[in-house]
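ok trying this again, last paste got cut off
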Amino acid sequence: MSFTDSTDSGSDRPVSVLWGCELSSARSSCTFRVSEDWHCEQQLVLRTVCLGDAARDEFHVLEVVAEDGDSRAPVPLATLKPSVLPTASLAGVELTPPVTFRLRAGSGPLYVSGQHVSIMDLTSDEEEEEEEEEEEAAEEAPKKPPKGSGAQKGSTAKKRKREKEEEPNSLAPAGPPPAKGRGAGRGRKAAAKK
């Protein structure tokens, strides 16, 4: 059984499929891998690991071996025991395939679940051509010179004033600082002291 979830974000479209495996004494390892003919980014996002109802009250250790590069050192992900911790959330664990899960200790059954996420590039040639045409149209549009930047002769004081007005100054306050104290800003006069 698999579920798919997809969202459209421009040219990349992530597609996720529910993934899971069962580890026990009969099958102590499971490898998640994708075929070489998939030309998109692949990830396995882990969600939970839990023990089955037939698991004995012993420690069950799940380890993962990421098969990227030369280093293949196993990393323990969870240690579960039915009477203490029968399930664990693995939020934030994202692995790039191929990845092997092993039941290092315990007899199982132990279930690993997550999402297989594929980011597919859906940019077609037609969309690229439309984008190029829009860019060319924007480049060909004539640019009007700003007013007052022609070959007019004027005093240097006017030019400096114009430059000052054009400069944005976000640090300067927009107006005078607000007055402090009782009744400030309401248009009341200060009470006379006796």
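PB: full thing came through this time. The chain has two helices and ten strands.
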